[in-house]
Write a structure and sequence with these properties.
This is Signal transduction histidine kinase dimerisation/phosphoacceptor domain-containing protein. The protein is of the alpha+beta class and about 450 residues long. About 65% of the residues lie in helices and about 15% in strands. Among the domains are: about 5-105, Immunoglobulin-like (Sandwich), CATH 2.60.40; about 155-235; about 360-435. It has helices spanning about 110-125, 125-130, 145-150, 160-190, 200-240, 245-405, 410-435; strands spanning about 5-15, 20-25, 30-35, 45-50, 55-60, 65-70, 80-85, 85-95, 100-105. It starts with 6 loop residues before the first strand and ends in a 12-residue tail after the last helix.
Length: about 450
């Protein structure tokens, strides 16, 4: 199904598992028309003829709808454009993208002459049919009259020549009936070809028309030969009774007949030549179309090959792009990692620099403290040396005094003991100062055990 309603399928071809459909733009639009009677019931299987830009004849479906193919610029102007077989179209109204036609059934009424004509065979005396003169056989123009005359006829009493004439007349009437049916069929076949029909159906209809024309030619030739034989028989019987003027008139008629036959033959060959040219043109167009289909198949195969190649190229490009993307991601990752390491190194350098600065400050402070401590130690040692020197000098002096004086020894000893105590205090102070500046080894002691 083609979703685009403005297109239709022109032809199709299945080749190498590929279905190719050639579409063409519609030059018509389909308008549904509902045919119903005055009671509102749809009229199905009714022949409808539409007289528009082209005459279109179709039959309604089971729902009473007939689809009219109209040109794109064509409109339904009125009810007078419609002819419904056996019905009289009264009015037409548009409704929901379709048209509704109300029609009345036509009541058939015969005129007086027709009634007399139809009733004449019934009102004829049966003796007329029974005593029918076979000389008036050519006056019979229909199978109905033929049957009315010969249904009660005593065929056994007729001669073989009369029976042969009756059979020939019957075959002639049947041939005329078949000829009329063939002509109506030929007209119907030709009416089925229009701009809205499919090409394959048109070719089949043309084939049907050609077969019908061939059958008609054979039949007409046979009838013409039969009529010529009758004319020859009549001429053989009554030619001697004709006068000079009648013979000249008859010869003139025969010459005109000959001219007509020659003209018909020329027209026939002209038509044959024209038909042959048309067929050759159609054949060339068909082969051109096949060549076009071959080119389309080749172009489709080339398009598929290019599509496959394009797909492979796209996959290769995607693979390369993916590879470059991974490389770019890795580069970005390592770059960020290097930047982070650089930043960490910078922070570490700053921290080391700060530590170096702090160490320099600490070293400077410690050096200054050591210098102060050494200065204080020098002062203390200097004082301690004087303080130690004083008791030593005192003891030395007391020893000298003891040797040169006559004091009691106890007093000198007391002085020496006192001096010795002073020295001992001084040494304890020095020991305490030494312990303060030289911290000892401490360890934890578990008091709970």
């Amino acid at each position: 199904i083609i979703e685009n309603q403005s297109l239709e399928a022109a032809s199709w071809k299945l080749s190498k598992g590929i279905l190719e459909i050639v579409v063409r733009k519609k030059n018509y639009r389909v308008v549904p028309v509902l045919i119903k009677n005055t009671r509102g019931s749809p009229l199905n299987d009714v022949e409808v003829t539409f007289n528009g830009q082209k005459v279109f004849t179709s039959t309604t479906d089971k729902d009473g709808i007939v689809n009219l193919p109209l040109a794109l610029d064509e409109k339904i102007e009125g009810i007078n454009q419609f002819a419904i077989n056996g019905y009289q179209a009264n009015n037409i109204t548009p409704s929901d993208r379709k048209y509704i036609i109300t029609a009345d059934k036509i009541a058939i009424t015969l005129t007086n002459s027709e009634q007399q004509k139809n009733s004449k065979p019934q009102s004829l005396d049966q003796d007329y049919f029974r005593n029918f003169d076979l000389k008036n056989l050519d006056s019979i123009q229909s199978l109905t009259v033929f049957y009315s005359i010969f249904k009660n006829f005593e065929m056994e009493e007729l001669s073989k020549e009369d029976i042969k004439r009756i059979d020939a007349k019957f075959e002639s009437l049947v041939g005329e009936l078949e000829d009329a049916v063939s002509k109506r069929s030929a007209v119907t076949v030709m009416n089925n070809i229009s701009d809205t029909t499919y090409l394959q159906d048109d070719i089949q209809n043309l084939q049907k028309q050609a077969r019908l024309e061939s059958d008609l030619l054979v039949q007409q030739r046979k009838e013409f030969e039969d009529k010529i034989a009758i004319v020859n028989a009549k001429l053989e019987q009554g030619f001697d009774n004709l006068n000079k003027e009648q013979r000249a008139e008859l010869l003139n008629d025969i010459n005109q007949l000959e001219q007509l036959l020659i003209a018909n033959e020329s027209q026939f060959y002209k038509n044959q030549s024209s038909y042959q040219q048309i067929i050759n043109s159609l054949r060339e167009q068909f082969f051109d179309f096949e060549e076009l289909e071959g080119k389309l198949s080749g172009s489709e195969a080339e398009r598929l090959r290019e599509k496959e190649l394009f797909r492979k190229r796209i996959l290769a490009i995607l693979a390369v792009v993916l590879l470059f993307t991974i490389l770019i991601v890795l580069l970005i990752y390592f770059s960020l990692r290097l930047k982070k390491q650089k930043k960490d190194l910078a922070l570490a350098n700053i921290e080391v620099q700060n530590m170096n600065d702090n160490l320099e400050t600490i070293v400077h402070d410690r050096t200054r403290l050591l210098e102060q401590t050494f200065a204080e130690l020098d002062t203390v040692l200097y004082r301690a040396s004087h303080d130690l020197r004083a008791p030593v000098c005192s003891i030395a002096g007391l020893c000298n005094i003891a040797t040169i004086t006559s004091f009691e020894p106890n007093e000198v000893i007391d002085r020496m003991v006192l001096t010795n105590n002073d020295m001992d205090k001084l040494l304890k102070k020095l020991s305490i100062i030494s312990e303060i500046h030289q911290p000892g080894n401490f360890s934890k002691v578990d008091l709970s055990s």
